Fold Integral membrane protein.
Amino acid sequence: MLSRMPDLALPSPRLPSSSAAEPAAVSRSGLVDEIARWAGVFLILTGLAHLVVFAVDGGAWEGPVSWRKPVTFGVSFGVTLIALAWVTSYVPTGARARAVLLGLFTADCVLEVGGITLQAWRGVPSHLNMETRFDAAVSMTLAVGGGLLVVLLSAFAVLAFRRRPRGPAGMALALRAGFAILLVALVSGAGMIARGVYLTRTGHQLDAYSSTAPLKPLHGVSLHAVLVLPLLAWALSRTGWSAAARHRTVSAAAGAYGLAVVAAGVWAAVTW
């Protein structure tokens, strides 16, 4: 039985039940939240553990076959999973629908990191690898999983824009700006996969591995806005600042983050 994890999630709003069936749905949603948080911590720890593996085993840090991938993907997916479990609690939606979306997202994150880690231990590329039937199966599973991530995160983004998110001053803006920037990460990620698959299918395997480099900064910068901006809004709510001042600060931070994304996009266009 899962025990409660102290202090892993930031405080989230309590939603009133709207029907007799709602308490059960809320209970299931709470269980999914806890599973998501534990899974996120597990992914982060596995990523950090591979830093130790890299220190012992050595080898190249860059390239399609390296310990960098289980490290960066484990930590990034873990942080994103924990962040999404928290920030979506401010998005007005049914408890059952949120539990389904978050549950699928959790399973998909574990699947993606698991596939990448498996291939790292096998000493072969995880993405765009069609060398054997097994490698092709893993690669296509990761691609399909990436597509599901796009669908799930887009669904959460739509929900955030359909109805005004709850929370302290600036939280609604932080969530909407964070999800909007996250869509840039999804588009750039899909672009990397599409270009890599095309080059692989046309017999340019080595070019496929290097083709994703220009979009990696854009993808990385835009991926975590959905955590950084809401976290800022939450932190400001713990200060004595007025609601107007906090909202202006979040607006300025969202604008600065947007400029960073634009700069990464310009760099991607120039180096493509």
The two ends are 50 Å apart (CA to CA). The CA atoms of residues 40 and 78 lie 4 Å apart.
